[in-house]
Amino acid sequence: MEDYFSDDDYYYSDRDSLDGLENEDSGPQWASKGPTSKVITKESLLAAQREDLRRVMELLSIRVHHARTLLIHYRWDVEKLFAVFVEKGKASLFAEAGVSIVEHQDLDVRPPQTVMCDICIEDLPSGETTKMDCGHCFCNNCWTEHFIVKINDGQSKRIKCMAHKCNAICDESVVRNLVSKTNPDLAEKFDRFLLESYIEDNKRVKWCPSTPHCGNAIRVEDDQFCEVECSCGVQFCFGCSLEAHSPCSCLMWELWVKKCRDESETVNWITVHTKPCPKCHKPVEKNGGCNLVSCICGQAFW
Amino acid sequence: MIDFARVQKELQECGKDVEGSGIRVAPKSDATLARLVGTIPGPIGTPYEGGVFQIDITLPDGYPFEPPKMQFSTKVWHPNISSQSGAICLDILKDQWSPALTLKTALLSVQALLSAPEPDDPQDAVVAKQYLKDYQTFISTARYWTETFAKTSSRGIEEKVQKLVEMGFPEAQARTTLESVGGDENLALEKLCSG
Ligand SMILES: [Zn+2]
Ligand SMILES: [Zn+2]
Ligand SMILES: [Zn+2]
Ligand SMILES: [Zn+2]
Ligand SMILES: [Zn+2]
Ligand SMILES: [Zn+2]
Questions:
Q1: Do B95 and A294 touch (CB under 8 A)?
Q2: Could you give the ipTM of this predicted complex?
């Protein structure tokens, strides 16, 4: 997936624009292709993502990183998210996704001069520490190390707080700020992961399967999988990302393609060594003899 | 880039409470803090009672931001521990690790695992099957393994001390070193030589 973005020039590195969503007026610039699908170009990716973020921010009066955490959890399905909100209420909507918006009343007017960081076990001036939304406070060096490990591990979208059993997702602006001080390249990678999440975690959006990649993604407007055409000319099945194959079903087509390529060994290896993640359906490699595996999407399963 | 300052503090902290917890952590040799040996007493009321279990600990470069690698070096019969390799299936040693946990808290969790096996998520399928289908046999096998592999009789220790003294090490030093590595002669010798 790194290949899609080997050229960085399209990418909006303007950090302020990510935070200042309220001032952004231009919606996604769709290049319309038929009534049920739309092409999202590299240039309109950020705008399309912003649009969904803004809807959630406005409805729930929350900040951007909370909206993003919710949307990633609900796979960028705004309607589903709103339905859960109406049905179960704000508290359980937030809790499920690892969003904690707690008012921390600091009873002591003056914050303490030094804070003991439980990770490096050092006393530090409180100015060198950061308290996350959940209330857990650790030193900036430790937060930075934690973020670097998680970003390199492919977990940018769901970086959890360092406290044991704390389910809160870290504030993306804190991650961006701290990481960019020591590793500006990694901070950009982090932003790119967040941006790509709009496509990779979105059940209605898929990358165009063209090689070399045209840079576009396709969004469908309903849950019905259909054959779509990208502005680069490639036609593909939205259900399986393979070439258009109607009226043959996706499963039959997949089996046919596998049979044709005679990749039986590869297929065998995948069934023996991986399990599909129940949440995002990517194959996840089993490690060792134990059956507990965890997917980069955050789901652990047996 | 292991945070050795923190590891040092952890070792000190753990050393203060050996009487209370029975949990020990010591470097395998004086050369590095990246390889350690943990020792946990078998929980009372389990087939592991009376045994002393050694766990090999390897700290990854990213410690404490990445979990320590732990593996039993004492053979143990348990559904979530490989009877062959000593590999442990425990969530906090994988994706549930948090940098706020320590070697001691991780070892306490391993000890808790000895008390409460989870046969539905087996590391060792043979043991798990026995646990579910023939619990009595499981208990006696686990007890037998504890007797055979996890108990060093006091007489055994004296013999080992004597052997090390004959090799030219002072008796007190030989004894404390042996104790610090849970009675493993080879480890003690390695430590004494490197020290
Ligand atoms: Zn710290
Ligand atoms: Zn927290
Ligand atoms: Zn295309
Ligand atoms: Zn298809
Ligand atoms: Zn997944
Ligand atoms: Zn497991």
A1: yes
A2: 0.75
